[in-house]
Amino acid sequence: ELTVLGKAQEFFQICDLEGKGFITRQDMQRLHPELPLSLEELEKVFVTLDADGNGSLTPKEFITGFSHFLLEQIALKNDMIQQSEGETVCPLTCKETMGDDDDEEFQFSNLMDRLGAKKVLDDESDVKQLWLQLRKDEPHLLSNFEEFLVRIFSQLQEADNEKNELECALKKKIAAYDEEIQHLDEEMEQQIKKEKEQFLLKDTERFQSYSQNLECKLLSKEQELEQLVQKQKRLEHQCTELLSGKEETKVENTKLKMTNQELLRDLERTSHELSLAQQQLQVLQEEASRLHEEKEMEVYRVTETLQREKSGLLKQLDFLR
To answer: Mind listing the UniProt keywords for this protein, alphabetically (predicted)?
Structure first.
């Protein structure tokens, strides 16, 4: 056993050429030229020794586990030699050679630790019973059974790793769905805000355009009215001067009166047009107010429609997830 331990330490140093203090699956392949084992068999040995399943072996894990592996190989080789020489071993002799119950318990426990069975099996009694039965009755089949266990637990470990990878992928997809939902929610909010601002901007611009046009018309009419009033005052002043100073200019006065009457008619017409313009301005202002209220109602309806579409999209995304 001391020789085997020394050999195991030598093999660990061969694997750990960088001096990392641990070895990986790739490091284990360096033993291929040193041992009569294929790369696949070395991979199985590594899986067997990696009881905790962390993908690396410490010196203690490697030396202890590999020593047992070498001892088992030596014992298996001796059994094969004895069988080839025609030696027979009775069940009673096999029992005495393999040791007592404590040694069996230790070897089985060590085997289960190397296989990582505690992570997979809740109850090892059935496996233990079969292992003990083969050890006592069919010892030449024990190594085949242990190799079978190695393959089974390796496949179970791979299945567990695949399950963990699937769970990780599922979590990533859920996170991606949540991020997509949040992104869609932000886009919907920005779209609602943008459309609302566009409606309000268009309505405000049109209302301002109407107001400016009406103000321009009203200002023009007021200027025209002011000009007519000034002109009427000048004519009245001229008429007064003519009546007081020149009686003989009745014809001219008559003309002035007619002109005054025409100016009065123009003044009345202009006043009437101004009144109509003011009424039109009031009607337009009322219409603008009504249009503004309608636009607000339209914006509310559009917002409510977008909210319903948003709710439908969120339900579809939840359903897809």
So the answer is: Calcium, Coiled coil, Metal-binding
Of 156, 110, 123, 319, the C-alpha closest to 311 is 319
Here the tokens at position 23 are: 């070895």
Residue 4 placed within a domain: yes
Backbone angles phi, psi at 57, to 5 degrees: -125, 130
- What are the Cα distances from residue 72, in Å, to 78, 98, 131, 144? 10, 12, 15, 12
Tokens 């003309």 locate to: 255
Residues 6+ apart with CB under 8 A from 135: 98, 104, 142
> Is 44 inside a domain boundary?
yes
* pLDDT for residue 112 is more than 80: no
The lowest-confidence range among 58-67, 148-157, 226-235 is 148-157
**For 206-266, what is the HEC assignment?**
HHHHHHHHHHHHHHHHHHHHHHHHHHHHHHHHHHHHHHHHCCCCHHHHHHHHHHHHHHHHH
One DSSP character per residue, 62-124 reads: HHHHHHHHHHHHHHHHHHHHHHHTT----HHHHHHHT--HHHHHHHHHHHHHHHTGGGT-S--
| Domain of 40, in residue numbers | 1-76
The whole-number pLDDT of residue 121 equals: 65
Domain count, the chain: 1
208 belongs to a structural domain: no
* Structural domain includes residue 16: yes
Decide: helix, strand or coil at residue 301.
Answer: helix
Q: Rounded to whole angstroms, how far apart are CA atoms 149 and 185?
A: 53
Q: What CATH number should be reported for the domain holding residue 31?
A: 1.10.238.10
**Would the pTM count as exceeding 0.70?**
no
- Closest C-alpha to 31, from 12, 53, 48: 12
The tens digit of pLDDT for each residue in 232-271 reads: 888 888 878 777 766 776 777 788 888 888 888 888 888 8
DSSP bridge pairs for 23? 57
Let me know: does 51 contact 116? Beta carbons within 8 Å: yes
